[in-house]
Design brief:
- The protein has 2 helices and no strands.
- It is mainly alpha-helical.
- It has one domain.
- Helix 1 packs antiparallel against helix 2 (about 25-50).
- The chain is flat and about 15 Å long.
Length: about 50
């Protein structure tokens, strides 16, 4: 559920930034997406004691 939400928010952010600054969004938003996925993984590890 959390991963789906992160992906949806990242997609919205990509769309908004793409309209604002053309093609300059690529690196910025993929790094944002990766950070979201990493933090989700850390949360799951704490939850399941890994």
């Amino acid at each position: 559920m959390v991963i789906s939400l992160n992906l949806a928010l990242a997609g919205l952010r990509l769309g908004l930034k793409n309209r604002q600054v053309g093609e300059k969004w690529v690196y910025d938003d993929y790094s944002y997406l990766c950070k979201g996925l990493k933090s989700t993984k850390k949360s799951k590890n704490r939850l399941y004691g890994k």
